[in-house]
Amino acid sequence: MGMIAGNGIYPETFARAARAAGVELIAAAAFTGETAPHLVDLVDEIAWLRVGQLGKMIKFFKSHGITEAVMVGQIAPGNLFELRPDLRLLKMLSKVKERNAETLFTAIADELAKDGVILLPATTFLDDLLPGGGHVCGPRLSERQEEDAAFGFRIAKETSRLDIGQTVIVKKGTVLAVEAFEGTNEAMKRGGQLGKGEAMMVKVSKPNQDFRFDVPVVGPATIETAAECGVNAIVVEAASTLLLGKEDVVKLCDQHQITIVARGD
């Protein structure tokens, strides 16, 4: 199994799950300055690349007989604007008219497929980390918060449909912040400052979400950011959002009195 490993705990979570599922060889394409160095202890082969070295990554996978791979973990948005593309990536970019996360990663998946490496859903081996509908942890939502959850969910579905972002920050029927290219944490910081301790984050999947990449994720770092910036409730889409490091997430939610709820509508 090949792994394109970004930052955060997602790559190590996937590596452990793949091993538990019986995968005998894991080859990780890791990125300098992004991927956690200790991933080397959880995989069999690893290549350290710069963001943009598509040709080198494909050669690495082919050299180890990899025919299936997953894309797990984020790449800092700024790095996507500071690419030093190799020839393979330059040729690919010349054919991409709109450069957003979906078009770029779809093009990368197509390039991998040309060399016999099929990109699998990023939720592979991780189905048990996709919470179903209902209360997950933390205090129960108030009636007012339930209304905000429904409101924010509707707005986030629309912004994600327009390919703006999959996260919104709301309070009492008002949109405080909408995620764009800066990412979830930065949107939380902006919205949380305006919400003064009563903001809610709502995170959804896009209509027709391609789960080979860009799967919505909530983990310990999300809760820590929420606590720092005054977000006291997090609403995610049921069966479409990965909850990573759940034990730590639950502890942090209890400590900071932050609610997580999964909605199925």
Describe what you observe in this structure.
The chain is 37% helix and 21% strand. The strands form 3 sheets. It has a 6-stranded mixed β-sheet with strand order 6-13-11-9-7-8. It has a 5-stranded parallel β-sheet with strand order 3-2-1-4-5. It has a two-stranded parallel sheet with strand order 10-12. It folds into 2 domains: 118 residues, 3-Layer(aba) Sandwich (Rossmann fold); 133 residues, 3-Layer(aba) Sandwich (Cytidine Deaminase, domain 2), CATH 3.40.140.80. Helix 7 packs parallel to helix 8. It is an alpha/beta fold.
Task: Output the keywords.
alpha/beta, Rossmann fold, Cytidine Deaminase, domain 2, 2 domains, five-stranded parallel β-sheet, 21% strand
CATH domain class name of the largest domain: Alpha Beta
CA-based gyration radius: 19 Å
Strand order of the largest sheet: 6-13-11-9-7-8
SSE run: EHEEHEHHHEEHEEHEEHEEHE
Poorly predicted sequence stretches spanning 5 or more consecutive residues: none
Number of helices: 9
Please indicate the count of domains. Answer: 2
* CATH architecture title of the largest domain: 3-Layer(aba) Sandwich
Task: Profile the largest sheet.
Answer: 6 strands, mixed
Strand content: 15-25%
Mean residue pLDDT: 93
CATH topology of the largest domain: Cytidine Deaminase, domain 2
Helix content: 25-40%
- Class by SSE composition: alpha/beta
Shape: globular
The N- and C-terminal alpha carbons lie at a distance of 34 Å
Q: Give the beta-strand count.
A: 13
CATH superfamily of the largest domain: LpxI C-terminal catalytic domain
